[in-house]
Every structure is written in C-alpha cells, then in structure tokens.
Amino acid sequence: MKKLSDQEEKDMVDNCKKATFLIEKRQTGEITLKERLELEFHLKTCEMCSIFMKQSMVINQFVKKIFQPEKHKMKLDEDFKEQLQKQIDQKLGNTSKEQ
Amino acid sequence: MPKTTETTDIKEAGPNLWVGMYADYLDSYAYMRINDTELAKDLVQETFLAGLEGWDKFSRQSSEKTWLTGILKNKIYDVYRKKSRGAKSEPLAAEPVEQDDFFESDSGHWKQGRYPEAFGIEEPSNLEDKEFDGILKSCMAKLPPLWSSVFKMKHIDEEPSEEICSRLAITASNFWVISHRVKVSLRDCLQKNWI
Predict the structure, then answer these.
(1) Three-state SS for A14?
(2) Distance from B178 to chain A by nearest Cα, in Å?
(3) Residue B64 sits in a domain of what CATH number?
(4) Domain end among B60, B85, B110
(5) Over the stretch A14-39, which tens digit does the pLDDT of each residue have?
(6) Are both B103 and B141 inside the same structural domain?
(7) In this structure, are B107 and B146 located in the same domain?
(8) Does the beta-carbon distance from B115 to A48 stay under 8 Å?
(9) Is residue B4 domain-resident?
(10) Residue A19, Cβ neighbours under 10 Å: how many?
(11) ipTM of the modeled complex
C-alpha cells in the first residue's frame, strides 16, 4: 500500500498552503493518490485546515443556493418589456413567411 | 413555423410570448452574475434577438427556456472574459504573484492572525440564507474580475475546468491557483465580516 516517505511527511506537516490548495482541487475530484495521502496526513494534525475544509464546503453549498434566479426579487420595468415586445413583434411581422 | 399554444407547452410557446414568459427570469439570471442592471437588460435584449434569428434552427431537444438561457449564458461568459482582461489589453500574468498574505513562504503554514477560526458557518443546517447572502455577495464584489469569473463559472454554473480555462483564456495551472486563492480570500472575508 502506498505511503508517504518521511521526507514527504516532513514537507507536508506544516504546509497549509498546499493542503488548502488540495482541498480545493479535490472538490472537483482531480487529485492524485499521492496528493490525497499528503492531504490526509496534514489534516490529521492541523485543526485550522480542517476548519477551512468545513467552511469551504459550506461556502460552495450556499453559493449554489443563493444564486438561483428565483431569489432575485426585482422585475424588469414594464416600459422596457414593452420595448422588447415591440422589437420582437416587428421582426416577426417583417419575416413574412407562409403559415 | 411553430404553433403558439395556450397550453403550458413550454417547449414551443414561440417568440411572441417570450417577453412575458422569460424576460424577468433571464434578467435575474444575468443580473445575479454580472451585477449590472443596464448591462443585464442589454444582454436580455440581445438574447431575444439572437433567439429570433436562431428559432428555425432550434432543435427543440431542450425547452425554450433552457435554450434561451444557454444563449444568454454564452453572452455572460463573453462579458466575464472582457472584464477579466481589463480596459487595456495587458498580457495576462503567467502566474499570479507568488507573495502571499496568508501563508508563510518557507513552510506554507498559515500566517499568524490569518488562520481559519470557527465563526458559526460550520453547521449549514443552522444557517439562514439571508445571513450568508448579503455578506457573501459583498465579499465577492471585492474579488478581482478574473477571480470572480472563475469562481462564478465554477460554483454557480458548474462548468468544468477545461471550459472555464477556454472561455477565460487561462491555463489549467492558473485556474487551480486562482481557485485556491479565491476560496482563501472569500473565507477570510466572511470570517472578518460575519455578524
């Protein structure tokens, strides 16, 4: 079974920059086995990055929810909509196709 | 020529019903992404006009709404790209600057005073959308345009990385570095501003 070398562990134990980088990269599923091991090793002893990971996932969840068009309450003004409708009607009227 | 029907057959309502049926939705869709009222209106208008031109060729595989939204989405991505490049056509930096506000340059460890602390968002079930909504949006507004575009394409539109890279003309490596830095910055901003 693949394991990290002592040097790899040494390089990773304080490397929050790399760990957080891998946390983000892993969210789309694209990290190598070695990177996975490095991340898990780091998270074993780094509470700060474990917090980061939790918060990162919550941010992702909420962004999706918040940016649904249904959440946007403002509507277009009627004048603008009339203008649009006129434009469309005009273009439809001008394409004199046989029904 | 497609029939316009009175039913809820939204596959083919037809162009003369589009404004009534989709204008507000498309405007919301655009505004949420580009945060610019006037530009959003322009894009909606362009979308309908493009839809009119393409209507005969529309395959009807998807719904009308999905199809029109797709047209709009492409226009939004063009806006992202233009904004990311800035007013002058500066060459895009090969890599974002290495100097880091958050991590020690030798060890990579979080810098003193910059590290994540629990501040109340860790339990998503306890959170209300509106708490998050305002603070997140104002934090997002602080991001540089390219970072913001990457973030939105990734998390709102869920585009694969290859698509994002291609649309925004960045390398895969740029993409991963930006993804990382955006999240670190946003998280930090949320922590600083959480009530």
Answers:
(1) coil
(2) 10
(3) 1.10.1740
(4) B85
(5) 999 999 999 999 998 689 999 999 99
(6) yes
(7) yes
(8) yes
(9) no
(10) 29
(11) 0.87
Chain A residues near residue B52 by CB distance under 8 angstroms: 88, 91-92
pLDDT above 90 for B127: no
Report the candidate in B86, B93, B77 with the shortest Cα–Cα distance to residue B34: B77
What are A11's two structure tokens? Answer: 């390089």
Q: Quick one: B95 and B31 in the same domain?
A: no
How many Cβ contacts (< 8 angstroms) between chains A and B?
137
B133 in a structural domain: yes
A77 touches chain B (CB under 8 A): no
* Half-sphere CA count of A90, side-chain side, radius 13 A: 8
Same domain, B195 and B133: yes
SS3 B174: helix
Tell me the nearest-neighbour CA distance from A1 into chain B, angstroms: 28
- For chain A, the domains span 6-69
User: For position B86, what pLDDT does the model report?
Assistant: 65
Whether residue B160 is found in the same domain as residue B181? yes
> Are B98 and B165 within one domain?
yes
**Residue B131 lies in domain:** 91-195
Residue of B nearest to A10 (CA): B107
The size of chain A, in residues, is: 99
Spell B160-187 as b/e; 16+ CB within 10 A means b.
Answer: ebeebbebbebeeebbbbbbbbbbbbbb
